[in-house]
Specification:
homodimer, 151 residues, alpha+beta, Arc Repressor Mutant, subunit A, Dna Ligase, domain 1, 2 domains, 3-stranded antiparallel β-sheet, 3-stranded mixed β-sheet, 5 helices, 40% helix, globular, DNA-binding
Chain lengths: 151, 151
DNA sequence: CTCTCTGCAAAATGTTTGCACACTC
DNA sequence: GAGTGTGCAAACATTTTGCAGAGAG
């Protein structure tokens, strides 16, 4: 499997090396459903690979982000969160529901048809009007989750 | 004018005091079109009110955010950015276009009818399905601005 | 006059960087 | 073997906190 990963080929193709650490990090990311911070990943790694430092996690995430393999989100609870991009992960296209109290993040993939119609139109219009090349969009809803109780 | 501000009344109503610093900060925010960081506000303030510390800026912004007077955004260039909420500012409902290279933020208010239709449906559906009380939404497009050149 | 608000300095947090060694290709 | 990648420790930047004094109501 060492040389069969899509992301690995992508990195190699750009002249980067495939290392144990990089594999371990992508592996963690592809086996989780949650949105992990650099520290989360570091600790998850620590059980099996105690010799991978937090620095490497940060450097790897940066590299992966620059190569379109992970997405970085800053939802506002201090630390940035990461997940594999649609192209390299196994989550469907989705957006986020973020609880203002506990910080829980819920992925949702509902209503994507409606969204698509809206986005397509908007992206085209905005790109033209502001001469902006749009690469990505982010739609998030903030509020209070069931557990934290409505107010 | 000291006691006539909507935001001031809101604060007072909640038992908080109206101070020079708080007025100055809201004043700066209501006279700018850009998205300012705490430090930006601190320096903008410094000309007229050199005695207001950065700590106060942070504490005030936190208070204002908790009372729904300002919105805090973390777009990912390190520092958080603030702007008055729709209810207390004078910007129309809008969203953001963020340049990945230079960090420029463009507000846009176009296509709001399409958005409204999509959002209304989605919010209702999500709220119901995930038992989530939605307070706010955020739609952002990321890409490369005209100045930074498309790629 | 009471109690909140503030400035200052110090701490805490998340992230980045320099350097010598380790490992991939 | 050449050159990228890594761990460690230290540097950094932003934001938060403790405390004694200042100011609002």
């Amino acid at each position: 499997m060492r040389h069969g990963h899509k992301w690995g080929n992508k990195l190699r193709g750009c002249g980067f090396r495939l290392t144990i650490g990089r594999e371990a990090i992508v592996d963690i990311l592809s086996h989780t459903n949650s949105h992990m911070s650099a520290e989360d990943i570091f600790f998850a790694l620590h059980a099996d690979s105690p010799n991978i430092g937090l620095t490497t996690v940060y450097r790897t995430l940066e590299l992966l982000e620059k190569n379109g393999i992970v997405s970085k989100y800053e939802f506002g609870h201090g630390r940035a969160k990461f997940e594999l991009t649609e192209a390299y992960g196994n989550k469907p296209h989705h957006h986020h529901l973020i609880c203002r109290k506990c910080g829980t993040i819920i992925d949702y993939s509902d209503f994507m048809e409606d969204e698509l119609a809206y986005l397509k139109k908007t992206e085209a219009g905005l790109g033209k009007k502001y001469k902006f090349t749009i690469h990505q969009h982010s739609i998030s809803f903030f509020g209070i989750c069931e557990k934290c109780g409505a107010s």
